[in-house]
Amino acid sequence: MAKPGLPQGTRDFGPEVVRKRQYIFNTIRSVFELYGFQPLETPAMENLDTLMGKYGEEGDKLIFKILNNGLDNPDKHQQARADFEKVLEGKNVKGLTERALKYDLTIPFARYVAMNHGQLTFPFKRYQIQPVWRADRPQKGRYREFYQCDADIVGSNALLNEVELANIYNDVFTQLGVTGFELRINSRKLLAALAAFCGGAEKMIDITVAIDKLDKIGLDKVKEELAQRGLNNEQIDTIEKYLAITGSNEDKLEQISALLGHLEIGRKGIEELETVNRQSAIDNLVIDFTLARGLNYYTGIIFEAKAPATVKIGSIGGGGRYDDLTGLFGVPNIPGVGISFGVDRIYDVMEELKLFPEGVYTGTQVLFFNLGAEESKTAFATMQNLRKQGVRCELYHEAAKMNKQFNYAEKKNIGFVVIIGSQEIQSNTGVVKNLKTGAQETLPLADLTNKLFI
RNA sequence: GAGGUUGUAGCUCAGUUGGUUAGAGCGCAAGUUUGUGGCACUUGAGGUCGUGGGUUCGAGACCCAUCAUCCUCCCCA
User: Fold this and answer.
1) Tell me, what CATH number does A31's domain have?
2) pTM for the predicted model, two decimal places
3) Which end of chain A has less neighbouring CB within 10 Å, N or C?
4) Nucleotide nearest to A314 (CA to C1')
5) Tell me, what's the ipTM?
6) Cβ neighbours of residue A446 under 8 Å, at least 6 residues apart?
7) Using the CB atom, is residue A6 less than 7 Å from strand B?
């Protein structure tokens, strides 16, 4: 028998952890619902075509591909071998793999919208809470299977959507108690303007990739990388000016106007940031011109939620506007904007900062002691009564020493026990004990109601 | 994909320059206590030292390989 184990980067979640995770899911879900978003689910796997080429070159490598079934069929051996040769050259071959685990929720959503745009009422606001998979190397805050909670609005260009999404971030993190978060925003239009201004519109991706690393590797290394990517000194000087902008959000907007306001696309980007900054009125909102985000389908405002600086986890959510996402699937002119929460990282942050409230751990509210065959019949009937009133309770599975039953309640963090022994049966009563305070009283069984156990 | 770390009881970890029967704390089980838990005390169960090979009279320790793990880079949630 081989030792049991888990695939790298995946985890089991025990009861306590699931409760804490659900607390996060429920908070996010209720805020999404509060803002008028509707739920959607898509399959764990997609056709490989749907995913490939949507996440950049690096992204393609991180997609988990699923090996086709039936490759052992002797009739197909020759073809399979030929296909495998192509795989060794780094190509994807339908003969071997035509499905893959989904990498994020946005592209499957775009695929869904493209397939159903005739039936949907626009603007369509959907939220989606599902696992995604990445063939990444696991490390701190990084898993191969993790959950994303996405909210997107498609079919609307209104900046109101961006404002709403910013507020969703704020509401969720505030409710969860993650008050030290920072919501960074930028506009891809400014990055486009910068690239155009530098005379290298086609260099936009090179530029964004490089400046995205600023806080990690520092200005000098960014300049080095820009040079490596083929930019000349004059262009790099302009980018340096762009990166040097600091101050309050208002200061930054003023300075960026001076630098890029003369370009139409630059002016548009500035307007976007101004609007979101002014209307959302979130304290933790930071305009950050170095924010670039890797996904190359963003075209307008981009978001990144950063964990409090004390926990070195970095991004706990991100998103942005994409003007033509479904265009990739043959349905042009459906603009959208969306955000995503990384639950697994939010969990790690909350664990580290001890932000889970006490009540999260409570499952069963009342444990009925089992003191013998006869006694337990009364206990069972009483328990069923309480369950009808919505009280979560259980009867100890066998007659055992009270010691043992108390310990069981203690371990499961059960707040109350009800003891019904031979004496109590005679008087039709039960002993109700509060395990937190140690207080107990003997009450008629008829008086046991849900109000007692809150 | 590149680099590094660690692997000893269910968990967290000790284990000296290589030396006889591998330890502790927590947890678990039983008891002190046959109707009142958490505390205390007593007793007990539990380890092919990740795996395979090598060096040695002798390996948990040294060497090689391998697997797993965690971390860093890349990229991301």
Assistant:
1) 3.30.930.10
2) 0.89
3) N
4) B77
5) 0.84
6) A428
7) yes
